[in-house]
Amino acid sequence: NGHTRTEHSRFLGTLEGPEAVRAFLTDNLTPFLWDKLFAAATFEGLRFPEHIHRGEDQVVAAIALSRARQVTSIPDALANYVVGTQSLTWGRVPDPQEYEDAARFLAEKLGPEWMAEPKNLSAFLVYRTLAMMILAQSAMRSEKDTADIVRSARRALSLPMLRATAQARPQLAAGAALLRTCPALYRKIYLRYVRSTYAIAD
Predict the structure, then answer these.
(1) Are the C-beta atoms of 153 and 147 separated by less than 8 Å?
(2) CA-CA distance, 39 to 35, in Å (whole number)?
(3) Among the listed residues 131, 132, 127, the one whose alpha carbon sits nearest the alpha carbon of residue 165
(4) Which residues make beta-bridge pairs with 97?
(5) Are 79 and 31 in contact (CB under 8 A)?
(6) CB of 91 within 8 A of CB of 47?
(7) Which ranges in 111-146 belong to alpha helices (H)?
(8) Which residues pair with 73 in a beta bridge?
(9) Coil, strand, or helix at residue 14?
(10) pTM of the model as a whole
(11) Which pLDDT score, from 0 to 100, does residue 201 have?
């Protein structure tokens, strides 16, 4: 409806590359590719996975950040992002398999050594929690029968994922727990949030 708002990452300042990846995966840096400037070297040999059409930009951004020496987050809003019900993000319910493929792609590119580090694995589990919440939210916005997709997202919310999220982002963990145990209430709260924040009706 033409309404605008200004947002920035929860974290502001400079991080070393490994710290930046963890901040990115735990939603302390915005989970987007398009609002960041990267050194060309961070994308050397890096390509988008063509078989993934949801979340592919996020995993590519995480991989690029892992190659950076330093990452600086600033409060200035330098890009415009338009929210619309017909966009790929807001107008399409993705296949749950796309999120599984994105997570597998990310883990493979970051490598087993990175994944074996406990604090990195915890950040990855938070990313997985967020992905399942986004999947469920996409289904809840749809006018189609998407109950199977919501069930799939809820089943995927494992206890290790919830524990890792509770340590890093307690509020997100509470939301994920509500989604897992009471999806009807979660949907009601979520759609109210979408209406008030983005002026998109359910």
Answers:
(1) no
(2) 14
(3) 127
(4) none
(5) no
(6) no
(7) 112-116, 118-141
(8) 13
(9) strand
(10) 0.90
(11) 54
Asked whether the beta carbons of 124 and 130 are under 8 A apart, the reply is no
Going from the C-alpha of 168 to that of each of 12, 25, 155, 175, the distances in angstroms are 17, 10, 21, 13
The answer to whether 55 and 102 are in contact (CB under 8 A) is yes
Contact at 8 Å (CB) between 186 and 178?
A: yes
Residue 94's pLDDT is 82
DSSP code at position 31:
S
| Type of residue found at 95 | D
Residue type (1 letter), 199: A
Instruction: Map residue 72 onto helix, strand or coil.
Output: strand
- Distance, in Å, from the CA atom of 28 to the CA atom of 30, rounded to the nearest integer, reads 6
Query: Comparing C-alpha atoms, which of 126, 200, 137 is closest to residue 170?
Result: 126
Output the pLDDT for position 176.
97
Looking at the DSSP bridge assignments, the partners of residue 16 are 70
Return the pLDDT at 1: 59
Q: Is residue 12 classed as helix, strand or coil in its secondary structure?
A: coil
pLDDT profile of the chain (202 residues), mean per 10: 80 95 96 92 93 89 96 91 71 85 95 96 97 94 88 96 96 97 96 82 51
SS3 at position 16: strand
